[in-house]
Structure formats: C-alpha cells, structure tokens
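Box 3.1 A note on notation
Throughout this textbook, protein chains are presented in two layers. The first layer is the amino acid sequence; the second is a token string describing backbone geometry. Keep the layers aligned when reading.
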Amino acid sequence: MANRRVVVTGLGAVTPLGNDVASFWDGLKSGRNGIDFITRFDASELKAKLAAEVKDFDPKQVLDAKTVRQTDRYQQYALAAAFQAAEDSGIKGAVEPERFGVYFGSGIGGFETFVNEHNTLLNRGPARVSPFFITKMISNMAAGMIAINLQAKGPCIEVTTACATGTNAIGEAFRTIRHGYADAVVAGGSDAVIHPLAMAGFINCQALSESTDKDCASIPFDKRRNGFVMGEGAGALILEEYEHAKTRGAKIYAEVVGYGSTCDAFHVTAPDSEATASSKAIADCLAEIGREIPAAEIYLNAHGTSTSLNDKTETAAVKKAFGDEKAHQIHVSSTKSMTGHLLGAAGAIEAIAAIKALENDLVPPTINYKEPDPECDLQITPNTALETPLSLAMSTSLGFGGHNACIAFAKV
C-alpha cells in the first residue's frame, strides 16, 4: 500500500494557560506566564515552590459525578482534551469504529492516586483501599477511557517515553494511519504530578528550578537557567487520513509530514552531549518531509526545558540536523517558558502550539529571556511573538531514558 497522507482535523487542550485551545493559544501569543506559587498543597518544606498548575478546571463540567470519583486527575485532563478535539473535528460517528484508534500516553499515570491509596492502606488497612485504585493509577487507562467514550475500536496504544510521550504518541499514530491500519486516531498525552512526593523526587535528582521568582524559573536557553518548572495538563489531536477528511468536509489544520524517533542509549537522565541520536531524530523527520523548505519559513517548538544540559544539547542537535547556517535562520522558541514542563503531555500541547503557529504565521515567544548563552545561540524569539510567513512547524521532545522524538507539520 502506498503511503497515505495524514492531516490534523481536531485539537483539544487543558493547560496552565487555559483549558481549551483558544485560551491556550491566546496565552502563548501574548506571552502570558502560567507559572506561580503552588496552591494545591503546602509547599513550605520543598525547595521548589513554583509550578504551572491547571487553573479553574472543574471535571464535573466534562464528566458525570460517578466518572469523576473513579478517575485520577491525569485521566480527567485527558478525557477533557480528547472530547474537545473530537468535537472540534466532528469525528465521532464519521469514521467506522474499527478504523478509529487511540494513541494516548502518560509519563507517570495516576501518581496522586497511588500515594493516596498507599496512605489509606497504612492508616486504615487493606479493606479500605479503593476498588478503583488500579484503574485510576495505571497509565494506559486514559487511552482506554478515551476509546470507550468515543467508541474507537481500532488500535488503542498507551505510549510512555517520559517527556517524549506526547510526541511519540502523535508520531506513531501518524505511521498507523499512513500505513493503512486506521483512518483516524486520537493522539496525545496527559500528566498530573504536581504533588509533594513527585516534586521532592525531581528536586532531589536536581531537575527542578528552586527559584522563587516566577519570571526567573523557567527560562529556556537563558544563561541563568537552573532547572525546569513542573507543569500539568493534557493535549489531544485528531489525526485523519487526508481523503477521508476531505470527503467528509472536515476542517484541516495542517498535514503531518515527518516524524523521527531515536534513543541516546546513554544515561537515565542526562542527554548525550554529542547529540548524535537527538540530531538524528530531527534529521529523520526532515528527510521524511521530502522537499526543501526555506529556513526562514520554519518554526521549531524546542523541548527547551530550562535545564543546563538539555538546552545546550538540543542546540547542538538542531545544528547537526539542519547544518550550522540553516540552524541559525530557523525560528525557535520554547513555550515551556510559559507552561512549565508538562512531562508526558508536553509533546502534545507543544505540537498544538506548533500547529497554531503555522496556522497564524506567528511564532510564540520564549518569555523572560534576558542573558544570552553562547552555547544556546539559536534564533529563539525572545519575549515577544513574531509575525512571519511559515511553511513548516516542528516540535522536538527529549525525555529521561534518552528518548528523542521530532514531529513536523505543513500547511495543506
């Protein structure tokens, strides 16, 4: 079977900048900071006191009360984003259930549920552990519940590749449709781990910023960067075979034109500073596009975590993949400067950011950028959004375990 074209026909988002795509995009283009002091619990004993929390999210506006009781927050965010994307696309009922799939991941799953039920076991005994403990905790259940609610009876795969989860989910869904195994797929990721134990773990492995100034905490590519800021939320995309979407008159946001996926095979947390595998993920994605795009018409939503090693390694990867001259001409930004790091959801919401940038010919900024780092010398679009014609938008993700992924979108 010849490769089939794959397009994006629906978007959904729950983020620290807003709980739908319109408010998320408005926050990005205006350079709004979604980071602030933690309100969900007392963080006084933690060294890191800032996070990018989802705000004003009421799961009962999306789910019935019974489902809310039986789900973890990561599942609630996932379902909310998936329902938005499905409604935006009009896909429900427009595709054969057996040809409708779900590729949806979580970096960690129901972390809050795990801790709460463990405390129940210790304090009240095994008989009081919730019968919904397992289904609230396991990381495949967001994908499963999306499939149940949308009657998607095709391939249903949960992806867990740490911070590359969302991008890998989209990329693998792209391949599934391209090679004929489905006509439409809900793809994305969700995580909700702003919790004392998770924060303590990331702090103690020296990953989180300990800044108490929200405008100096998540500062990708800035020389002052000292760790990432924990975020939370979910992003969902409806990927669809082009002729199928065209026949039913669906709105098409963009075409998925490239995907690359590699592993550093180097270290459990640190990226390989040689950027051999990470640059190959980008290069493989570019090769799949199959045509030359002027550098000035390319936007790259960088992984850009605001950690010392990630940002300079990613800079090296971009230079190796594009070539030094072209790498300095493409438009780059890290929206984590506004959203923090959504872990397994990061790649999904950043893919949405890339698609909206392409649609609007507008590069969102890297906010709070003040001190250039010579090791991170890309054109990073500092502080203010840039209006410029775009033909291609890409998003990169680099995760613990050495996972690297890159996805590319073009106008149709």
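The chain has two domains: 7-247, 259-410. Residues 392 and 410 are 5 Å apart (CA to CA).
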